[in-house]
Specification:
2 copies of one chain form a homodimer. The first copy, chain A, has 9 helices and no strands. Chain A is mainly α. At the A-B interface, helix 8 and helix 9 of A face helix 8 and helix 9 of B. The first copy, chain A, binds a DNA duplex (30 and 30 nucleotides) through helix 3.
Chain lengths: 234, 234
DNA sequence: CCGGAAGTCAAACGTTCGTTTCAATCATAC
DNA sequence: GTATGATTGAAACGAACGTTTGACTTCCGG
């Protein structure tokens, strides 16, 4: 099954897509660097788009399996109780970082690619990509809501978004050395820093939703709300 | 100066770049939709790359001017004292959202484009883009460090990264309606939610850096470091 | 009315793209 | 050894790309 050629193509494509982006990477770039024939991509994968899909499948399947596995453990442990926010976040954020250690440089490359795909919004690639992600997002959002029952569902959704944004940025920026940016760190440290930031952000008191007719103070949004002084119509 | 044609090209290009990404948008797409001749892009802007640069210039110049202006106000106000974290964050995050109200649909489009460019890492576009951003990042990072003097510089840098990630994601995701995602919200609400999340995250206690010889507990990273076990800022 | 700059237009330029074709090669079972 | 299916190879396909060209309008100061 896993022929030598096929794997070499996947490895090189992963790196080039991560470095230059999907549309900016040509099959000729890939096949030249992998030292295989141009036609072999279409032979083994059918089309460029399917190559991307195969590439995502290879990494995402075990990654998301691991995430859900950790979440399962948490849910078994707490039963009907409230899971701890930090535990849920750790189950979500740790696997990509573990992965990079297990898979070495190519795991790191993949993380950069993922960070990129979050913004690479050709709707077709996005569908390819999101298919892998949807169940994970749904289950973690719901676990997070159980951990933070005083928040409204829409707030949990948004914080999940912000979390994903931080994660994506940490992956693409934190793992690509850049002049002027923070020095690249040990992945474990990045994970700790991210968890720390994310846990505080996700568990923040809910934003005060001042009713529109209440004369808005100069700077709303930071009045601690906890549970909605005024239930926001919605 | 600002000819009819030139503006139409800029407007359409902004939208298409935001929708499909820069490399995936052809000049023929742009000129067809703008109902101008294909050659006029090269006539007015020289090349596709310069079109992107002009497009960024048009929006970023006033946007970042506004950010720095708000930051200046804060720094004048507090003098040698500590600025408030929320104020600094607001100065950073509010202008893009204000902009979208002032510029209407095309402001919103631009925000999507910006969110995208954060990941669009062809090094040349990135240079084009980062040039507009570098001073802002530097000054806000330093203001943030003054607001949170107990944090190490490297932690502040990283949290600035996470913040930018949340912002980028909020822009590209929060403003593009997606099935299954959170319902699109009023921009003011997004800003409030983002500020709330970001303020808590940025001001979180610094991650515990356990010395390597200390037998690491099973789950490090949430031991509250620094000061006050529960004094989460506010 | 005219001359010339500014802008538009259709057409073509040379490249590069993803994909296809088909003969050559390889491995394996008979 | 030879037939057979899987893989590789070199070459070409048509389409799309960014850019350039040169003739054609449009406009305006003299």
């Amino acid at each position: 099954m896993a022929s030598e050629t096929k794997d070499r193509i996947l490895d090189v494509a992963e790196r080039l897509f991560a470095d230059r982006g999907y549309p900016a990477t040509s099959l000729r770039d890939i096949t030249a660097e992998a030292a295989v024939n141009l036609a072999s991509v279409n032979y083994h994968f059918g089309a460029k788009e399917s190559l991307l899909a195969a590439l995502l499948e290879r990494r995402f399947a075990p990654l998301n399996r691991r995430r859900l596995e950790l979440l399962d453990e948490i849910e078994v442990e707490v039963g009907a109780g409230r899971p701890a926010v930090e535990e849920v976040l750790r189950a979500f954020l740790a696997p990509p970082f573990e992965m990079q250690q297990k898979w070495g440089a190519s795991g790191r490359t993949f993380l950069r690619l993922v960070g990129r795909l979050h913004a690479e919004t050709n709707d077709e690639h996005r569908a390819t990509y999101l298919r892998h992600f949807e169940e994970v997002r749904r289950r973690f959002t719901s676990a997070l809501h159980r951990a933070l029952p005083h928040l409204e569902a829409t707030d949990v959704h948004w914080r999940m978004m912000f979390l994903m944004g931080s994660m994506a940025f940490a992956m693409v920026e934190g793992l690509t050395p850049r002049p002027g940016g923070p020095p690249p760190r040990d992945p474990d440290e990045v994970l700790d820093a991210l968890l720390c930031f994310a846990a505080a952000g996700v568990a923040a008191p809910s934003p005060a939703r001042v009713p529109i007719d209440a004369g808005r103070p100069d700077r709303p949004g930071f009045v601690v709300g906890e549970e909605a002084p005024a239930a926001r119509g919605r």
